[in-house]
Amino acid sequence: MPELTLDPVDYQNPVDYQPDAKGPLEGVRVLDLGRLAAGGHCGLVLADLGADVVKVERPKVGDEMRGMGRAALSPYWVVYNRNKRSLALDLKSEEGRALLLEILPQFDVLAENFRPGTLESLGIGPDALLARHPGLVVTRLSGWGQTGPYASRPGFGTLAEAVSGYMLRNGYADRPPVPAPTALADMVAGLYGACATVAAVLHARGGGPGQVVDVSLFEPITSIMGPDALLDQLGRLPVRGEGTRASSVKGIFECADGLWIALSAGTDSIVQRVFEALGMGDFADDRRFATYDDRLEHREEINAIIGAWVRQHSRDEALAHFHRHGVTAGPLYAVADARRDPHFQARKVFVDLPGRPGEPERVAMHNIVPHMSATPSGIRRPAPLLGEDTTDVLREAGIADERITALLTDEIIEENHA
């Protein structure tokens, strides 16, 4: 396969892996049967926070994310699976499932995002897992959850975004609804799954029993729609094109140089600063804009005034003017802009890590978030080769080398090394 190249000028924050970095979840061990985005992101959050996440993959095939790219590089695999180890294990074989149960007590968590009923059909559903390891946390991510009339249906993030109300709200009134440009529902579900997993592990380590964490894709993204249910009940739910009503003055505006800025005034004091910046005096003097509700009713008029002023200035001029008046405004960035922004660089939002064979010399990705003063964690290792850590994981569970050799011969497990 052809190797990919990247101009070194694009390396904004070259750093090396930190194999000895310690995070707040050091000592927590996760068997990650997750796949694709939701499962991958749940495991990524736990791994970035210091957990030992062992990704269980099908021999010879691996996670579908491995194939989401060109040449030797799958950007999705490289980013979602950093800080993890890979155990290639055939769960479709009886011996493979027995081996999973055998090593299970070495772990605090088993995470999976198969369609509901899949683990049960293999004989390794939650009842079997908890019988083997009563303190285990079983985190299950699925499209529609483990219960309810839709539970058995296949589900992806796009469907979750559709039924949550998000997609119908997103976009412009005179155009069709707009899907998210990223795996939004999967990301949100992965975060919820990781958060609940940490809570369940704390409960188990405090003497409580193990349990099942049931995370759907559609409920988490429904939850981040905020007060929409109450707004609907009150007859005040915004329609597509109105955006959120959290700020009465907000919008996206094009500047004279063709670049864009965003402006949001969430309080009366900031609204006043906007009016002063535009030379409009006190907002309370204009009956159209005197109250929050008035401004919502006349948002188009306000935005027309702001837009007319912004179009006469370059982005830098407009932002400098608004900042002098204490207005909350900022630029619209492409990721290339963000990677070069001095604040992003100071916060080390993106890092350029050493690539593996067949990859660019360095690969860019987001850094670990959030910042933690006492347990800052770190990116310890790159996304693994399929089965790269199979032997190590099994040895750590007390499996003898002779048996590992036999398992390799019978193709129950697989190992690969760089």
TrEMBL record:
InterPro entries: CoA-transferase_III, CoA-Trfase_fam_III, CoA-Trfase_III_dom3_sf, CoA-Trfase_III_dom_1_sf. One of its GO terms (molecular function) is transferase activity. The keyword Transferase applies. Belongs to the CoA-transferase III family. This is CoA transferase. It comes from the Bacteria. Keywords: Transferase. Pfam families: CoA_transf_3. PANTHER family: L-CARNITINE COA-TRANSFERASE, SUCCINYL-COA--D-CITRAMALATE COA-TRANSFERASE.
